[in-house]
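Below is a filled-in request sheet from our internal design queue. Each sheet records the structural input a requester submitted and the sequence that came back. We keep these sheets so that new team members can see what a complete request looks like end to end.

REQUESTER: design group, bay 2
PRIORITY: normal
MODE: inverse folding
CHAIN LENGTH: 248
BACKBONE (tokenized):
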């Protein structure tokens, strides 16, 4: 058995980003750069059928503060029962958080609220524990908020605060890489993992099976998984191939 096949697996989370009721992908998170990939319920079901253990489901309209796709998200979660769903986008208060859990999300990914309302974020981290992850969406070392349209503070200061609050998990995205198929920002991931003992999930830039292999090498350092989006939709590789490289 090779050394590689013995190394711990990297959890893969195929992404389904929803805007206007459709599955879409953005480039660098910018509104207006959408590429349409059809019905999000079908997309989620396809990833589930191909062996996904987790799906990363995002309500982009809620993230941008321009509406909600709650009905579609609920249908998608129901369609993939038995698969874990991480839900992100516009979850900024008790009501939206409770609604997300009620429709079947296993984990909630807080974004803007964790930056703009730290007291509330700390309270829900304390209350829900493992069900809460915090998305750290970064340009350089500056966090991006409000659907990546506003600055959200210094990455390291916010991380220190979240560590004190007992945050269970971080989802780290290099905004400049997202949707570009230019490869993940491994240096950023290493820097984040040096500052926490909590698991980290990578997001943004995955373009090839080599990228997945490179991220799997970081698992012993604390990388738990990676979100994969545009590369799957663009046909750069299949989910089955990616799962194989990830150690499933």
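RETURNED SEQUENCE:
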């Amino acid at each position: 058995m090779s050394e590689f096949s013995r190394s711990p697996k990297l959890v893969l989370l195929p992404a389904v980003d929803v805007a206007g009721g459709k599955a879409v992908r953005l480039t660098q998170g910018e509104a207006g750069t959408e590429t349409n990939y059809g019905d999000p319920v079908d997309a989620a079901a396809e990833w589930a059928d191909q062996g996904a253990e987790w799906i990363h489901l995002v309500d982009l309209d809620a993230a941008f503060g321009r509406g909600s796709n709650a009905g579609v998200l609920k249908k998608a979660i129901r369609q993939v029962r038995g698969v874990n769903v991480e839900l992100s986008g516009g979850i900024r208060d008790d009501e939206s958080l409770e609604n997300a859990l009620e429709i079947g999300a296993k984990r909630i990914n807080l974004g803007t609220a964790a930056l703009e309302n730290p007291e509330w974020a700390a309270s829900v981290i304390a209350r829900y524990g493992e069900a809460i992850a915090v998305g750290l969406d970064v340009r350089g070392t500056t966090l991006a908020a409000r659907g990546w349209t506003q600055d959200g503070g210094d990455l390291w200061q916010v991380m220190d605060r979240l560590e004190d609050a007992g945050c269970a998990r971080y989802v780290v995205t290099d905004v400049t890489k997202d949707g570009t198929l230019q490869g993940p920002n491994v240096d950023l991931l290493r820097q984040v993992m040096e500052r926490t003992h909590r698991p980290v999930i990578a997001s943004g830039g995955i373009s090839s099976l080599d990228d997945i292999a490179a991220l799997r090498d970081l698992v012993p350092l604390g990388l738990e998984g990676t979100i994969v989006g545009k590369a799957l939709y663009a046909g750069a590789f299949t989910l089955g191939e990616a799962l194989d490289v990830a150690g499933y």
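SHEET NOTES:
- DSSP finds twelve helices and twelve strands in the chain.
- The chain has a mean pLDDT of 90.
FILED BY: M.R.
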